[in-house]
Amino acid sequence: MGGEDLKTAAAWAKDLGVPEKKLKDALKTAGIEPDAKKGVCAYYSKVSAERVKKTLK
Description:
Blueprint: E1 6-8, H1 9-16, H2 20-30, E2 36-38, E3 41-45, H3 46-55
């Protein structure tokens, strides 16, 4: 995994220019599990975020 870019759904929403709630709902609907977890925070890779973004259009 190494230098993989992991961010929270909120951070990805901001980076991708989509509403945070829409992205979080899409992740849940798509059944995409977080790539990493630290406590209660879920972190997703760019691949996961991009995959979900495609479903938002």
